[in-house]
Predict the structure of Dihydropyrimidinase.
Amino acid sequence: MTFDTIIRGGTVATASDTFSCEVGIAGGRITALGANLGTAAEIVDATGLLVLPGGIDSHVHISQPSGPGIVMADDFASATRSAAFGGNTMVLPFAMQQKGESLREVVKAYHKKADGQCYIDVSFHLIIADASDAVLGQELPALVHDGYTSFKVFMTYEGLALSDMEMLKVMTVARETGAMMMVHAENYDAIRFLTDRLEQAGKTETKYHGTSRPIAVEREATHRAISLAELIDVPMMIVHVSNGQARDEIARARRRGLKIYGETCPQYLMLTEKDMDGLNMEGAKYVCSPPPRDKESQIACWEGLQQGIFSLFSSDHCPFRYDDPQGKLAPKGKTSFRWVPNGIPGVETRLPILFSEGVGKGRISLNEFVALTATNHARTYGLYPKKGTIAVGADADIALWDPKREVTISQSLMHGGTDYTPYEGIKVTGWPISTMVRGKFVVRDGELVGTLGAGAYVPREKSELAKPRTA
Ligand code: DUC
Ligand code: ZN
Ligand code: ZN
Ligand code: ZN
């Protein structure tokens, strides 16, 4: 057998096992795992390193329109470069529909932004803003058939929020097409009511962002989304869960036998509401939705990961620059938290944070880390076993980690388009030093060696996890 590359001397870990072996790669795929594989055009010495499946970040926002005068800090080139430095080999951004738009045209527009502009592989989730008969009856089923096998819906935000009636209709399409549905669960009316009341009381600083959407807002919507999904008997992923009460709604649904899944993100482990309490709108750097909560919620999110209630750990990378007229403070003369675009960067720091705080501190095992950051993403969204694992036949999407490297996270180390990291100053142990997509290095020993455009669009199968319980 001949190989293009052999990775030798490292410790390989998957979602289930950890073992010492060589990884033989040919034609962009893993073609052998074993001892003494022989010779190859290139031998990569991984002595002392971990050889892990490349991270899959199934929740990132790239080049999405975000309101008048606001521009996202990352395009596909900068986002996928940053992701690669963070140990990722694939990202799943959203192709976001706005009311009245044809979904097919939206997808074309996002391909135009992404094609030839990616360092690592990408695939798109859809965002359904317009639950019209034409969209749900024709466009959406056709796109699911074409490999866009997941979509997100929102229960809040002007122009995005779906009514319960619309949710039920969309859920019916998810069930019929076998698409995986993702839900942003927050109560729209409650947020509007609380935001108006805060503004009337002159409470407009960024710290009130959290007050305007407290835990009850998220818990109620999570409960309602689950109840609606139960009526239709459709599986569903509750994205970006921030606290124990929403987590418990998912746990209860699972005990009723429902296929309800959960995702959490670094901000809910590492930040709290207090971070939004900065001087002169400095707190805007941490404004995201759902908002970071408190210590108790952080612990609850860790437990959710440990107990498998959350199967995904994603970044929800949604980058805006801070010191920029098109960034976090863009809307001129509008100083209320209401106008701060929601979202924070994190595609480059997701993996080191979970590795250090999770594996390093004994909260999760190395295999759980792999599951939460790669394998489960591939399984949930129809990419497994081509992506998300180290196995013969899988794409050679691999990250080499130095488990001992100590790094203080700092914006100066980042490779994306934004101008700050919410995790500035956090010390981590363990860092991804090289990232390989389909057998080709994108980042090698901390240097960018990949070519722009080498990242490919990957159409997806339907997920096993999206199959309804009953036919
Ligand atoms: N939801 C997301 O998923 N990302 C950023 C903002 C939001 O509300
Ligand atoms: Zn969301
Ligand atoms: Zn998001
Ligand atoms: Zn660099």
User: Anything to note?
Assistant: The longest strand covers residues 398-408. The chain has a mean pLDDT of 97.
